[in-house]
Design a protein that fits this description.
Layout lengths: L2 H15 L2 E2 H8 L3 H13 L3 E4 L2 E4 L9 H5 L3 H12 L7 E4 L3 H9 L7 E4 L2 H7 L6 E4 L3 E3 L4 E3 L1 H8 L3 E7 L2 E3 L3 E4 L2 H13 E7 L11 E4 L6 E4 L5 H9 L3 E4 L1
Parallel strand pairs: 4-5, 4-9, 5-6, 9-12, 12-14, 14-15
Antiparallel strand pairs: 1-3, 2-3, 7-8, 10-11, 11-13
Helix pairs in contact: 1-3, 2-3, 5-6, 8-9
Function: Repressor of the lactose catabolism operon. Galactose-6-phosphate is the inducer.
Organism: Demequina lignilytica
Keywords: DNA-binding, Repressor, Transcription, Transcription regulation
Length: about 250
């Protein structure tokens, strides 16, 4: 069983029972107590459980989806390093599709003044930041704008993406795991992200390590559909190996 699958099983049991015990989990899952403790630490770092003596209790996760502003303020240095690594993957003069994520938005700040890309985006803040750049050709995907993420979603955005082929799509995600791929809480955003994956010759996922093993309601892609995952060095080696075994190249920044 993958570590991420085991952690999801632990989290599900914690939510069902209200509490989990290290000794009982180790016996049920046929692993050592040390392995369970590492799993609980990983879940606590993601905000899913709170460690208590001998086990853990679940933390209520039914909270409002974080806004773009709050996500941008979370781990800004990590996101900048991830964005800098992705810059190396962008073909000179190529067509780039930018998702409306906080990590992908960090890429905009790193674009050189003489950049000559054609950029498509469903992010209103990204479009505003890129408008007027003389070397860029900018296309904005239309649709209903979600206040939480400032992303254009819906049929207009998805239909526009069906008519294009881009060199590289840089996509953010709320959750990533070897077992379930890429997930997000909102159905409309998932549909647009799915269309982005389909439209791209090369798919790059930009995600910090806190998203690993956190599965949300709507899946928009499997890892087999992803070419490259760029994350940070806080992701454990066993999880990195699991993601790589699922298909994509995975690098840390």
């Amino acid at each position: 069983m993958y570590a991420t699958e085991r952690q999801q099983r632990i989290l599900a049991q914690a939510r069902d029972d209200g509490r989990v015990e290290v000794a009982a989990l180790a016996e049920d899952l046929s692993v050592t107590p040390e392995t369970i403790r590492r799993d609980l630490t990983a879940l606590e770092q993601r905000g899913s459980v709170r460690r208590v003596h001998g086990g853990a209790i679940p933390v209520e996760r039914l909270v409002a989806e974080p806004t773009l502003a709050s996500r941008s303020a979370h781990l800004p240095d990590v996101k900048r390093r991830i964005a800098a690594r992705i810059m190396d993957e962008l073909p000179a003069g190529g067509t780039i599709l930018l998702d409306a994520g906080s990590t992908t938005h960090a890429l905009i700040d790193l674009l050189p003044d003489d950049a000559t890309f054609t950029i498509l985006t469903n992010s209103i803040p990204a479009a505003a930041a890129l408008a007027g750049r003389p070397g860029l050709t900018l296309y904005v995907l239309g649709g209903r704008v979600r206040g939480v993420t400032a992303a254009a979603v819906g049929d207009w955005a998805s239909a526009a993406l069906k008519g294009v082929v881009v060199d590289v799509a840089v996509i953010g995600t709320n959750g990533i795991s070897a077992a379930r791929g890429l997930t997000t809480p909102d159905q409309a955003e998932a549909e647009v992200k799915r269309a982005m994956v389909t439209s791209a010759r090369r798919v790059i996922v930009a995600t910090d390590s806190t998203k690993a093993g956190d599965d949300h309601l709507h899946r928009f892609a499997s890892l087999a559909e992803v070419d490259l995952v760029v994350t940070d060095a806080d992701l454990s080696e066993d999880v990195l190996d699991e993601l790589r075994e699922a298909g994509p190249e995975v690098v840390t920044a």
